[in-house]
Write a structure and sequence with these properties.
Number of strands of chain A: 10
Helix content of chain B: 25-40%
Helix content of chain A: 40-55%
Structural class of chain A: alpha/beta
Largest sheet of chain A: 5 strands, mixed
Largest interface: A-B, 20 and 18 residues
Largest sheet of chain B: 5 strands, mixed
Number of helices of chain B: 9
Order of helices and strands of chain A: EEEHEEHEEEHHHHEHEH
Radius of gyration of chain A: 19 Å
Strand content of chain A: 15-25%
Strand order of the largest sheet of chain B: 3-2-1-4-5
Oligomer: heterodimer
Strand content of chain B: 15-25%
Order of helices and strands of chain B: EEEHEEHEEEHHHHEHEHH
Chain lengths: 266, 262
């Protein structure tokens, strides 16, 4: 049985192909302007690395912000459901999932089967989402992936950023640089501000261990470490935190296919 | 008696020089990264424009708590207090003031003497502030003046759903990709600032006359549309950017200031 999940986010897109038990392949790309094209591209990449053809995949579920732009998906499921399910695959004991995406941030509580119990979400303000990291990366001309490690290489803790708004934080960061604060310390202040915002969100839904972080910011050690310190808990992060949503979609696709098959045979 | 008022905004520093509450001259200088030297510069330029020597000034009122050494007695006056005084100075019938600058928006009520009666303020988020208009103008590759003029030509409504400037940016990019006219986009952005101001003004009593000050007051489209929303006529003083600075130069004795400063 081969099924796939396609997650079309605001900034990136992922596809995961699963067999009866294992992940067969996955792909992760930057989302283009044309979402339908993006969906096609990311799916073909995953097919290629699993050496499969389109017709080999029996059921496809689309998820994410652009889930309605996956024309070849049989069904679309919200990313909250998918993230909970995907996190459950990696860590069955997971009870709180923090998904930090490009344009929103969600704290999800789930049970032992990976079913969503409650969630809170911020998609109104860029402060506390991956977008704020892109803004600082562009502003200081530092690759996104370097921000986390650099933000930990500091001698003393920087002053806290007073602004929540990304637009204002941007000018505040520049002001710090001009006043002689080192680049790494500015990054540290910025990561710290993001972590504090996210912790507030998590506290709204309540934290129960195990705790897992999915989404692109899961790759930013500067933010992850500060969230861990703030919550006083360890964050579990899988080998590729960006595919958790697509994986959940692929697993849901497998469940749906099984259900269909048993109905047909019955 | 010669006095000076200085307003330190997020983007500009303005100085007004007054002779017994008569405006002699003013200057507007970019705040930049070094506020203290911007204040010095603005003060010197205003002196020059007024043809006055520094030593002739008896007192300076400034809206910033930063310790600026001008060599003259300088007193801190809260910016809202300055705005209320300056507004009644420029339009004596003013009872409600809408003040939208680069990063702060505030609305306030005042009495006939320019005393502050109540206010609502928003300074946590760029949505609804001048910074929003500027970010969007640069995204559309327009000077802010052209942005304003273009928005007035709009014939079609396109709603912007994002409140956040950062998210609105991606919305605008997709509008551009869809081939929507720049004038309609500029209008949509302006409308979003208007509705933010309209919701802020709910927090105070709306009493006539109403004036609009701060940099955004130069955007006639926003002023008119806010007036329409409120069903009121909104006036814009001759130079809306220096009203707060003028208010700083209106000397009411330091007793009053001490009451207001928290």
């Amino acid at each position: 049985m081969i099924t796939a999940g396609i997650d079309i986010g605001s900034l990136s897109a992922q596809a995961v192909i699963v067999g009866d038990t294992d992940i067969l392949s996955y792909s992760n790309i930057i989302a283009g302007v044309d979402r339908i094209e993006t969906a096609d591209k990311v799916f073909l990449l995953a097919l290629k690395s699993a050496e499969l053809k389109r017709e080999d995949v029996e059921y496809i579920v689309g998820t994410g912000y652009g889930r309605y732009s996956v024309p070849f998906a049989a069904k679309s499921v919200t990313e909250i459901t998918c993230h909970a399910r995907g996190a459950n695959y990696f860590l069955p004991n997971v009870r709180t999932v923090l998904d930090m995406g490009g344009q929103d941030c969600k704290a999800i509580r789930c049970d032992e089967r990976g079913t969503v119990k409650a969630f809170v979400m911020n998609d109104k303000c860029a402060a506390g989402t991956g977008r704020s990291m892109e803004v600082i990366s562009k502003l200081l001309n530092i690759p996104l992936e370097d921000i986390g490690p650099l933000s930990l290489k500091i001698e003393e803790n920087p002053p806290q950023l007073s602004n929540v708004c990304v637009v204002f934080a941007k000018s505040e960061a520049l002001q710090l640089i001009r006043s002689g604060v080192s680049r790494n310390e500015v990054l540290a202040a910025y990561c710290d501000a993001l972590a504090r915002r996210i912790v507030l969100l998590i506290k709204k839904t309540g934290m129960e261990e195990e705790f897992m972080i999915s989404g692109g910011i899961g790759k930013n050690v500067g933010v992850v470490k500060r969230i861990e310190e703030n919550l006083n808990t360890k964050a579990n992060i899988c080998f590729e935190p960006q595919i958790v949503g697509a994986l959940g979609a692929a697993l849901i696709a497998r469940d749906l296919l099984k259900k269909n098959l048993s109905r047909d045979s019955g | 008696m010669l006095t000076a008022g200085i307003n330190v905004g997020a983007e500009n520093v303005e100085t007004a020089i007054l002779d017994c509450e008569k405006l002699l001259g003013h200057s507007i200088v970019r705040a930049g990264w070094d506020t203290i030297s911007a204040v010095q510069k603005s003060f010197n330029e205003a002196l020059l424009a007024s043809d006055i020597l520094k030593d002739d000034i008896t007192s300076v009122g400034i809206s910033s708590t930063e310790s600026v050494q001008l060599g003259i007695p300088t007193v801190f006056i809260n910016d809202l207090v300055c705005s209320a005084r300056g507004s009644v100075w420029s339009v004596p019938t003013t009872r409600t003031v809408v003040d939208i600058g680069a990063e702060n928006s505030s609305v306030l009520n005042c009495d006939s003497t320019g005393g502050l009666l109540g206010y609502a303020r928003s300074s946590r988020c760029a949505a609804g502030a001048g910074a929003f208009l500027e970010e969007m103008a640069s995204l559309l590759e327009l000077e802010i003046e052209d942005f304003v003029n273009l928005s007035l030509l709009s014939k079609k409504q396109v709603p912007i759903s994002s409140n956040c400037v950062v998210f609105a940016e991606s919305e605008v990019v997709s509008f551009l990709n869809e081939g929507i006219n720049k004038e309609d986009i500029a209008q949509a952005i302006s409308e979003s600032v208007t509705s933010k101001a309209a919701s802020l003004i709910q927090g105070i009593n709306i009493e006539k006359d109403i004036i609009f000050i701060g940099g955004v007051a130069k955007h006639t489209g926003i002023v008119d549309s806010l007036g329409k929303k409120m069903g009121q006529n909104i006036m814009v003083p001759e130079n809306p950017c220096i009203v707060t600075a003028v208010g700083g130069g209106i000397d009411r004795g330091t007793e009053l200031e001490r009451d207001i400063i928290h």
